Amino acid sequence: xxRLFLLAIISVLVISVQAxxxxxxxxxxxxxxxxxxxxxxxxxxxxxxxxxxxxxxxGDNGEGYFLFKNTGKADLILTNCSSSxxxxxxDWPKDPIAPGATAKIIVRYxxxxxxxxxxxxxxxxxxxxxxxxxxxxxxxxxxTEAVPEENxxxxxxxx
Length: 159
Prior knowledge:
Layout: H1 2-20, E1 21-25, E2 31-36, E3 44-46, E4 50-57, E5 63-70, E6 78-83, E7 88-91, E8 102-109, E9 115-125, E10 131-140
Parallel strand pairs: 4-10
Antiparallel strand pairs: 1-2, 3-5, 5-8, 6-9, 7-8, 9-10
């Protein structure tokens, strides 16, 4: 019974692989060219899914970006980008991204708040499942410049 089940699974796999590629034949019956019959769909591939600001100071530039490529076979359309809070604002390409083309999502984090950064950006597209991007880092208070104190004690006159 197990052998029959295993044979059925292998047969289905072989048939599905054969269905993905068709060979055209010339007049003599020789294979001329392979035609890819896989569906033409977009695929979004990110260079990285976490952007680390590292240690930055309060009020510093909180802009970062996520580079991605359409590795699919159809135009990629980003339908929405949203963030986990109002302190993170994503800006994404509104035009279709052609197969093989690259683009970027710019993320602006408000560095007014001091503390650890751990936010998410959600990317919706016609490529299928939602992608979650993460930003991390730490915002510290800017160091203050030390100003020398003025000596206000009376000077003692030499005797």
